[in-house]
C-alpha cells in the first residue's frame, strides 16, 4: 500500500507555511545545512518542541548534541498549532485512575503540572518573546455536559489540590465569549496560550547558544544501531552518535515502524481573520483567554496579539489538506461567531499532528540507545516540551518520569498501518455525527 511522505505531501520543502505565525515570527539567525559526516554524543531527530527541548536540556548537561530537522526549526505542528498550554494529560484524571491506578494517576497529574511549569520557565529563563497569556476556557456546547465539567473542576480542586480552576455557568460563559453557542464550562487560569512558532524559535536559539549544532534541510532516511548509532541523511551524509532521540511526532511514520503502529498522523487546520480592533475582540473573548470546546472534533480558538481571531476547527484523515483551507474552517467559526461572517480571512493553514488510540502520548525506549516520545494528540505544546527534558533525563540515566509515561498502556491501531486510516475514518464519522446530536 502507498505510504505518503507527510514531510512533502502538503508543503513546500524548506519553507514555512503561509500562516499567521510565520508572518509574525521573530527574526532568528539562520541555521546551517549538514555539509559533512559528523560525530556527537547524542543525535536528535526533529526540530519541534520535543527535539528542541531534548537538545537544549542535553547540552545543558554537557552532552555534545546534533539536531537534524528535515525542513526548518518549528516547521511542523510545533509552529502551526493552536498555542494552548493546557492542564493535565490528554485524558482526564478519573479516566487515568481507572487506566493506571491512583498512584500513577497522581504521578501523571504531577508530570502534567511540570509541563506547564517548564514552558513558563523556559520563556522566562531565555527571554522568549511569544505572547504568553494566562487562561483557557473549556466551553460545553451541550447543556448535558455542564454537570460533568463542574464535577471535574471540583475533583481537581478537592482531590488534586488544584485551585486554579473554577466552574462557569451559562450566563457567564455567554458574556465571556460573546456567543450563545455554549451552556457552561470551566475556566483554568493555571493554563495559558502563546505564539507557538516564536516559542519554538526561542527554544532553537537557546539550544544553539548552549552548544547544540542544529542542521536544517537534513531529512533523515534511516538509522542503524550497533556499537554506535548511525543516522543517514538524504544526500549521503551520516551522523554517528552514542545515543539517539526521536522527536518526529506526526512525521515519524516511515522512520520507525515500531512506534508508527501506535502513533498516527492526522491533519488539523486554523484560520486567522484580519485584525478586529479592541472593541470587537473584547466582545468575542472578553478576558483574552484561549477557548477549547466540548465537540469531539474540537473547536479551539483565541485572539492574537494584534487582535485577530485565530480559529482551529475540522480534521481530515486523508493524506492531503483541503484545497481551500479558509473556506473549510470558516463554517466552524461562524457556527460560534456568526458576527464574523463579513470578517476577512487573512490566513489559512494546516498541520500534521499525531494521535494515539487512547490519546495518551507514547514514550518508549525503542532500543537500548534509542528513545522516542510522540503522539501528544493535540495536547503537545506543554507535554512535548517536557518530553524533551524527560528524554534528556533518560539519556543521562534518570528514568523515573520516563518510566511513568512509558507505563501508560497505548494500544496499537487495529489493522496495522495499512488499515488504520479506513478504520479511523469510520470511527470519526460516528463521532462527527455525535457532535451534531
Structure description:
With about 425 residues, the protein is α/β, with parallel strands linked by helices. It has 13 helices and 18 strands. Helices cover about 35% and strands about 25% of the residues. The strands form two sheets. Strands 1, 2, 3, 8, 9, 10, 11, 17 and 18 form a nine-stranded mixed sheet that branches. Strands 4, 5, 6, 7, 12, 13, 14, 15 and 16 form a nine-stranded mixed sheet that branches.
Largest sheet composition: 9 strands, mixed
Question: What's the end-to-end separation, in Å?
Answer: 36 Å
Percent of residues in helices: 25-40%
Task: From the alpha carbons, calculate the radius of gyration and give it in angstroms.
Answer: 21 Å
Q: Please indicate the percent range of residues in DSSP E strands (runs of 2 or more).
A: 25-35%
Pfam family, one: DAO
InterPro entries: FAD-dep_OxRdtase (IPR006076), FAD/NAD-bd_sf (IPR036188)
Protein name: FAD-dependent oxidoreductase
Keywords: Oxidoreductase
SSE layout and pairings?
Elements: H1 20-23, E1 32-33, E2 38-45, H2 49-60, E3 65-68, E4 84-85, H3 93-100, H4 102-125, E5 133-140, H5 146-160, E6 165-168, H6 170-177, E7 184-193, H7 196-209, E8 213-216, E9 220-225, E10 229-233, E11 238-246, H8 257-260, E12 264-273, H9 278-284, E13 290-293, E14 300-303, E15 309-316, H10 325-336, E16 345-355, E17 362-367, E18 370-374, H11 380-395, H12 400-406, H13 416-436
Parallel strand pairs: 1-8, 2-3, 2-11, 3-8, 5-13, 11-18
Antiparallel strand pairs: 4-7, 5-7, 6-7, 9-10, 10-11, 12-15, 12-16, 13-14, 14-15, 17-18
Helix pairs in contact: 2-7, 2-11, 3-4, 4-11
Domain FAD dependent oxidoreductase: 41-393
Protein name: FAD-dependent oxidoreductase
Pfam family, one: DAO
Amino acid at each position: 500500500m502507498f505510504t505518503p511522505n507527510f514531510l512533502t505531501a502538503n508543503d513546500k520543502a524548506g519553507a514555512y507555511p503561509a500562516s499567521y505565525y510565520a508572518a509574525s515570527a521573530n527574526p532568528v539567525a539562520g541555521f546551517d545545512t549538514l555539509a559533512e559526516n559528523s560525530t556527537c554524543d547524542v543525535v536528535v531527530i526533529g526540530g519541534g518542541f520535543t527535539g528542541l527541548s531534548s537538545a537544549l536540556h542535553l547540552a545543558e548537561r554537557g552532552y555534545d548534541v546534533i539536531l537534524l530537522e528535515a525542513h526548518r526549526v518549528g516547521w511542523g505542528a510545533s509552529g502551526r498549532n493552536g498555542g494552548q498550554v493546557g492542564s493535565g494529560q490528554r485524558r482526564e484524571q478519573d479516566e487515568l485512575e481507572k487506566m493506571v491506578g491512583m498512584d500513577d494517576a497522581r504521578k501523571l497529574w504531577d508530570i502534567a503540572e511540570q509541563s506547564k511549569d517548564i514552558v513558563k520557565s523556559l520563556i522566562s529563563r531565555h527571554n522568549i518573546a511569544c505572547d504568553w497569556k494566562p487562561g483557557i476556557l473549556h466551553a460545553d456546547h451541550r447543556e448535558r455536559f455542564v454537570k460533568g465539567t463542574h464535577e471535574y473542576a471540583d475533583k481537581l480542586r478537592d482531590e488534586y489540590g488544584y485551585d486554579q480552576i473554577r466552574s462557569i455557568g451559562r450566563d457567564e460563559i455567554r458574556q465571556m465569549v460573546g456567543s450563545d453557542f455554549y451552556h457552561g464550562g470551566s475556566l483554568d487560569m493555571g493554563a495559558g496560550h502563546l505564539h507557538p512558532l516564536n516559542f519554538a524559535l526561542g527554544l532553537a536559539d537557546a539550544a544553539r547558544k548552549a552548544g547544540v549544532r542544529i542542521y536544517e534541510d537534513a531529512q533523515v532516511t534511516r538509522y542503524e544501531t550497533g556499537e554506535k548509532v548511525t543516522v543517514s541523511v538524504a544526500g549521503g551524509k551520516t551522523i554517528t552518535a552514542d545515543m539517539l532521540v526521536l522527536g518526529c511526532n506526526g512525521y515519524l511514520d516511515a522512520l520507525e515502524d515500531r512506534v508508527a503502529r501506535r502513533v498516527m498522523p492526522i491533519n488539523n487546520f486554523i484560520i486567522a481573520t484580519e485584525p478586529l480592533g479592541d472593541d470587537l475582540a473584547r466582545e468575542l473573548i472578553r478576558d483574552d483567554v484561549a477557548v477549547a470546546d466540548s465537540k469531539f472534533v474540537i473547536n479551539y480558538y483565541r485572539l492574537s496579539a494584534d487582535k485577530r481571531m485565530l480559529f482551529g476547527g475540522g480534521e481530515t484523515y486523508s493524506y492531503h489538506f483541503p484545497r481551500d483551507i479558509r473556506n473549510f474552517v470558516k463554517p466552524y467559526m461562524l457556527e460560534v461567531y456568526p458576527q464574523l461572517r463579513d470578517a476577512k480571512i487573512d490566513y489559512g493553514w494546516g498541520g500534521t499532528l499525531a494521535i494515539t488510540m487512547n490519546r495518551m502520548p507514547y514514550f518508549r525506549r525503542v532500543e537500548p540507545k534509542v528513545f522516542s516520545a510522540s503522539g501528544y494528540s493535540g495536547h503537545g505544546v506543554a507535554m512535548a516540551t517536557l518530553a524533551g527534558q524527560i528524554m534528556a533525563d533518560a539519556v543521562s540515566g534518570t528514568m523515573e518520569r520516563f518510566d511513568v509515561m512509558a507505563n501508560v498502556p497505548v494500544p496499537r491501531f487495529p489493522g496495522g498501518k495499512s488499515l488504520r486510516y479506513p478504520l479511523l475514518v469510520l470511527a470519526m464519522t460516528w463521532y462527527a455525527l455525535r457532535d451534531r446530536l
